[in-house]
UniProtKB/TrEMBL annotation:
This is Flavodoxin family protein. Coiled coil: none annotated. Gene3D superfamilies: 3.40.50.360. InterPro entries: Flavoprotein-like_sf (IPR029039), FMN_Rdtase-like_dom (IPR005025), ISF_SsuE-like (IPR051796). It comes from the Bacteria. Keywords: Flavoprotein, FMN. GO terms for molecular function: oxidoreductase activity. Residues 1-160 form the NADPH-dependent FMN reductase-like domain.
Length: 194
């Protein structure tokens, strides 16, 4: 089994990546492979449909036909994966622009093949400084529900507080929630793959 994590921060290896890796630690304890994709390293344009064109060729092909960026590589990895962790910092009281662009592309491309995301466990995590964490997690959860994913929860909201890189490690309750998400996702994956 393999879970893909998407770091939607503009900062590679920042607080959002720390949260995803914490979820991954629990998955590793359960023998589940992981891969972290950091969107700051990814060349990804907006969906052509979002630019006013009427492409929608992905509906017929079952994947994005726009291959002049890196999205199709990520899409193929997600298609082969067993679970997905979406992580975003809070920018302007919601998810980052990089994450919004990513879920827009993923949502449209997966319309042509519902099985890409349907019934796949997914979890949302958010690194937040002050406010907006609930909105960010809610945005990601709504995306996953819209794509018929099985949303993995925790004992509290899936957000952790911190400003500078590493500050999230000082939020004991938030980090405990990240570990719990990993445990819950591992439990669900094992039940689905019996």
């Amino acid at each position: 089994m393999k879970v893909i994590g998407i770091n939607g921060s503009s900062r590679k290896d920042g607080n959002t990546a720390i949260l995803i890796r914490t979820v991954f630690e629990e998955l590793h304890k359960n023998g589940i492979e992981t891969e972290l994709i950091q969107l700051p390293e990814v060349n990804m344009n907006p969906c052509k449909l979002c630019e006013g064109e009427t492409c929608l060729a992905c509906l017929e092909k079952g994947s994005c036909v726009f291959t002049k960026d890196d999205f199709h590589v990520i899409f193929d990895k997600i298609k082969e994966s067993d679970g997905l962790v979406l992580g975003s910092p809070v920018y302007g009281a919601d998810i980052s622009a990089k994450m919004k662009n990513f879920i827009d592309r993923l949502g449209i491309a997966s319309l042509g093949d519902a099985k890409v995301l349907q019934h796949k466990p997914g979890a949302a995590v958010s690194a937040v400084r002050r406010a907006g964490g609930m909105t960010a997690v809610d945005t990601l959860n709504h995306f996953m529900l819209f794509r018929e994913m099985l949303v993995v929860g925790s004992t509290y909201w899936n957000m952790v507080y911190g400003k500078d890189v590493g500050d999230v490690l000082n939020d004991d309750e938030g980090m405990a929630n990240m570990r719990n998400i990993g445990e819950n996702m591992a439990w669900l994956l094992k039940r689905l793959h019996v």
